[in-house]
Write a structure and sequence with these properties.
Elements: H1 7-35, H2 39-42, H3 57-65, H4 68-99, H5 103-115, H6 120-133, H7 140-165, H8 168-176, H9 181-210, H10 213-218, H11 227-231, H12 243-263, H13 265-276
Length: 279
């Protein structure tokens, strides 16, 4: 039996959790407040939490100054494509690594972990040269390829844990009943991996949606730029920012991630629990 936690200790845990939630929520709440503040309140020496005269002028100005819808469309195409392609490639690889353990799979897992420590600065020059040779500079497909390569190690690492959580006895029972390997994977393993696949695809999508560095270097023309790059246009050459429109545009940029979490929250939780359970 686990030791019973005293009331003061439990109260301390809840207090620490509350402080942590406030710490996480403060930037987002301040962003929302700033997005709805009129210009006089933004320049006030005594900032307030709740705008006294909320306005939508910042949102209208943001759309007038920058092509946010076009940039959001580019980000959506790149993030969705990268998430789907990364999961499609990583799922069979993770299955093989989880079910057929050998020195090769152990080396592949070690390489996945090591690759996450590589700084972006060391990768951008080789990537740029490769994409230039393939004539994919300043194209969304070139950026999607980079996002897939970037998300693949993390997706593979996550999915290996989910596959190992599926008992091999279920596949053996299906084989005894006469199901072939493909039928077993489609009818038995894939439904059990669905929460993990959804969670992995979501993380890959959010990572690509928020990515800035690769998009800044690889996309040159304004028509191809993604939303994080366009947000920097609200900041002048000398560092002066158009704070109201910038906050409004940044608030709109965070909505897709929040909506995705809200819609498939249960699947994410189920996928995380599945990846944490060992058979």
């Amino acid at each position: 039996m686990s030791p019973r936690i005293s009331r003061p200790a439990r109260a301390g845990q809840y207090a620490a959790l509350f402080c942590y939630l406030v710490f996480l929520a403060f930037p987002f709440l301040w962003l929302i407040s700033t997005a709805f503040k009129p210009a006089p309140e933004l320049g006030s020496l005594h900032p307030i939490w709740i705008p006294e005269h909320p306005t939508l002028d910042n949102f209208r100005q943001a759309f007038d100054e920058q092509p946010l819808l076009r940039a959001a469309g580019n980000s959506l195409i790149a993030a969705l494509s990268a998430g789907v392609i990364a999961v499609v490639i990583a799922t069979p690889m993770a299955y093989v690594m989880a079910r057929h353990r050998s020195w090769l799979s152990a080396a592949a897992t070690g390489w996945v972990v090591v690759s996450q420590a590589f700084p972006f600065v060391l990768l951008i020059i080789p990537l740029f040269l490769v994409l230039k040779h393939l004539h994919l500079i300043n194209t969304l497909w070139g950026l999607i390829m980079v996002y897939v390569v970037w998300a693949l190690p993390f997706a593979l690492w996550m999915l290996v844990g989910y596959v190992r959580a599926v008992p091999p006895e279920l596949e053996e029972a299906a084989a005894v009943d006469g199901a072939g390997r493909l039928r077993t994977l489609v009818s038995v393993t894939a439904p059990l991996l669905a929460p993990g696949i959804v969670a992995t695809a979501l993380f890959a999508f959010i990572t690509a949606w928020n990515e800035f560095f690769f998009a800044l270097v690889l996309l040159k023309t304004p028509e191809k730029q993604t939303l994080p790059v366009v947000l920097t246009h609200f900041i002048g050459a000398e560092g002066a920012s158009d704070l109201g429109p910038l906050a409004a545009a940044a608030f709109l940029a965070t909505l897709p991630s929040l909506l995705l979490f809200a819609v498939i929250q249960r699947r994410i939780t189920g996928g995380m629990l599945a990846g944490a359970v060992k058979s």
